[in-house]
Amino acid sequence: GMPSAPAPVLAPRRPTRKIKVGKVFVGGDAPISVQSMCTTPTTDINATLQQIAELTASGCDIVRVACPSQDDADALPAIARKSQIPVIADIHFQPKYVFAAIDAGCAAVRVNPGNIRKFDDQVKQIAQAAKDAGVSIRIGVNAGSLDKRIMDKYGKATPEALVESAVWEASLFEEHGFHDFKISVKHNDPVIMVAAYEMLSERGDWPLHLGVTEAGPAFQGTIKSATAFGALLSKGIGDTIRVSLSAPPVEEVKVGNQILQSLNLKPRKLEIVSCPSCGRAQVDVYKLADEVTAGLEGLTVPLRVAVMGCVVNGPGEAREADLGVASGNGKGQIFVKGEVVRTVPESQIVETLIDEAMRIAEEMGEP
Ligand code: SF4
């Protein structure tokens, strides 16, 4: 058939330098990647690899693990070697773990040179070791851990304070000729966070890692992240994203991917077009939509499935979708590519939709 036009996006991507996080590129024209962080103790290699496998299966591109002790550092080689996706070691303060992570084969290290400098100034050696190994760095500026000098100047973590801190941290690497890093300026308030990233994006071409920190439990955290990332991504700002939720990391990855898909920054996969229901509904739309969503979870082809409560908008929406149902009178009219293919009793709507979806998905090349 005709090649389809690329899906429209809200703004061209802001040009940034491209860096490498293992096999994943971040910045430039590289697709916006989705990250998460393991909640397992890094020392528990099997549990961590198991969680990484789950994250990989749910569409995570890059994973971070904490490295607060020597035992964690000792676990890094096995994790880096066996992970299917690039592993970033998250390190505060101790330069020795940065070197250990680089030697371990980690794709990148999250470390702030400002912290390193306070203890034992090995920023130059870190820059050299990272460059020699082809390892990149994330400078992670966080509202909760701003440098005292900057807190004294601004009084609190304003966008200006976050940006000044980030630009200063960046200069600590740049003065050694090291440029393979991305930056985050996280805050738990989406308004401050968005302002900080906008300001930072004006100051240089560093690839940016978006995050609302401590965004909260799943519901609040999803909305805070979606609104903040949406505001930035719709202006072309953001090269890699991490949704932070007080919930299992697989949920973070699902939310991150859904945000990118919603903005056409990643190809859409399964999309359920379901109506909110109203007084006209002749079927339990919530239940139907939930059951169809659950039954089709994990499909990788871009299938649009319409689940509509009545025949007012039902046939119209169902026609626009690959597959759909419009319910009424205890029955469901099943549409495929806009044609009614059959009418089934209400009790068979879910299984019929799932059967049809699987058949169409297979035709579309679902593995
Ligand atoms: Fe209401 Fe029907 Fe529209 Fe659903 S499709 S919201 S039931 S009018």
Automatic annotation (TrEMBL):
GO biological process, one term: isopentenyl diphosphate biosynthetic process, methylerythritol 4-phosphate pathway
UniProt-listed SUPFAM superfamilies: Dihydropteroate synthetase-like, Nitrite and sulphite reductase 4Fe-4S domain-like
Iron-sulfur recorded as keyword: yes
UniProt keyword list: 4Fe-4S, Iron, Iron-sulfur, Isoprene biosynthesis, Metal-binding, Oxidoreductase
Positions annotated to bind [4Fe-4S] cluster: 275, 278, 310, 317
Pathway assigned to this chain's UniProt record: Isoprenoid biosynthesis; isopentenyl diphosphate biosynthesis via DXP pathway; isopentenyl diphosphate from 1-deoxy-D-xylulose 5-phosphate: step 5/6
Cofactor: [4Fe-4S] cluster
Cited InterPro entries: Dihydropteroate_synth-like_sf, IspG_bac, IspG_bac-typ, IspG_C, IspG_TIM, NO2/SO3_Rdtase_4Fe4S_sf
Substrates-to-products reaction catalysed: (2E)-4-hydroxy-3-methylbut-2-enyl diphosphate + oxidized [flavodoxin] + H2O + 2 H(+) = 2-C-methyl-D-erythritol 2,4-cyclic diphosphate + reduced [flavodoxin]
Gene Ontology molecular function terms on file: 4 iron, 4 sulfur cluster binding; 4-hydroxy-3-methylbut-2-en-1-yl diphosphate synthase activity (ferredoxin); 4-hydroxy-3-methylbut-2-enyl-diphosphate synthase activity (flavodoxin); iron ion binding
Domain IspG C-terminal, chain residue ranges per copy: 271-356
Enzyme Commission (EC) number: 1.17.7.3
UniProt cofactor note: Binds 1 [4Fe-4S] cluster.
Domain IspG TIM-barrel: 16-256
One of the Pfam families matching this protein, by short name: GcpE
Similarity comment text for this entry: Belongs to the IspG family.
Function according to Swiss-Prot or TrEMBL: Converts 2C-methyl-D-erythritol 2,4-cyclodiphosphate (ME-2,4cPP) into 1-hydroxy-2-methyl-2-(E)-butenyl 4-diphosphate.
NCBIfam families in the cross-refs: ispG_gcpE, PRK00366.1
The protein's name in its UniProt record: 4-hydroxy-3-methylbut-2-en-1-yl diphosphate synthase (flavodoxin)
Naturally occurring in which organism (per UniProt): Allobranchiibius huperziae
Organism ancestry: Bacteria, Bacillati, Actinomycetota, Actinomycetes, Micrococcales
